[in-house]
Amino acid sequence: MQETVLIEWIKFLGLIGHPISKETIGPYVFDLCGKHPSTRWVLCFLHHHWDLGLS
C-alpha cells in the first residue's frame, strides 16, 4: 500500500514539474512510513521501478 502511494506521489510530482531524485526521495519515504530509508533501499526501489525515470 505505501509503495503504491509513493509511486503515485512520484508520478504526480513529475507531472506538475517537481520531480524528485534518489537524494530527495528519503524525506518522502519518511513522511509515509516514519522511517528513514537506507541508501540500499532507495537503490533497490529505483531498480525495481526503473520506469519512474528518477535520477
What does this structure look like?
There is one protein chain. This protein is mostly helical and 55 residues long. The protein has one domain. 60% of the residues lie in helices and 0% in strands. It has three helices and no strands. The protein starts with a helix and ends in a 7-residue tail after the last helix. The model has no long low-confidence stretch (mean pLDDT 90).
How far do the termini sit from each other?
A: 24 Å
- Output the helix-strand order: HHH
Strand content: under 5%
Shape: globular
Number of helices: 3
Domain tally: 1
**Assembly state (oligomeric):** single chain
The averaged pLDDT comes out at 90
Structural class: mainly alpha
Q: Give the biggest beta sheet.
A: none
What layout of secondary structure does this protein have?
Elements lengths: L1 H14 L9 H9 L5 H10 L7
